Amino acid sequence: MNARKFTIQVIKSPEGGFTGRCFELPAAISEGDTMEQLESNMKQVISLILESIEEKAKPDQKIIIEIPN
């Protein structure tokens, strides 16, 4: 299985720490005191959102489309 890739906008807080927002999943937002913590937190929140999407879509018919770069 290929790994999915997501783009995270990282915003450094003047008070310290970082906030991340996922461009592909706008609901995926998290924070971390370090970049490593932010990356870990973003992976977790993205995974939870994807699980939720898959769970809600189970009874529905699905199609997969591919859009070239």
Mean pLDDT rating: 91
Beta-strand segment tally: 3
As laid out across the biggest beta sheet, the strand order is: 1-2-3
Give a quick account of the main beta sheet: strands, pairing sense, barrel closure: 3 strands, antiparallel
What is the beta-strand fraction?
Answer: 15-25%
Helix content: 25-40%
Structural class: alpha+beta
* Rg over CA atoms: 14 Å
Shape: elongated
**H-E order:** EEEH
Number of helices: 1
* Low-pLDDT stretches: none
Q: What distance lies between the first and last C-alpha atoms, to the nearest angstrom?
A: 20 Å
Describe the protein's architecture and organization:
Helices cover 33% and strands 20% of the residues. The chain is built from 1 helix and 3 strands. It is elongated, with a radius of gyration of 14 Å. Strands 1-2-3 form a 3-stranded antiparallel sheet, covered by helices on one side. The chain is an alpha+beta fold and 69 residues long. The chain has a domain at 30-56. The chain has one helix at residues 35-57, and strands at 8-12, 18-22, 29-32. The model has no long low-confidence stretch (mean pLDDT 91).
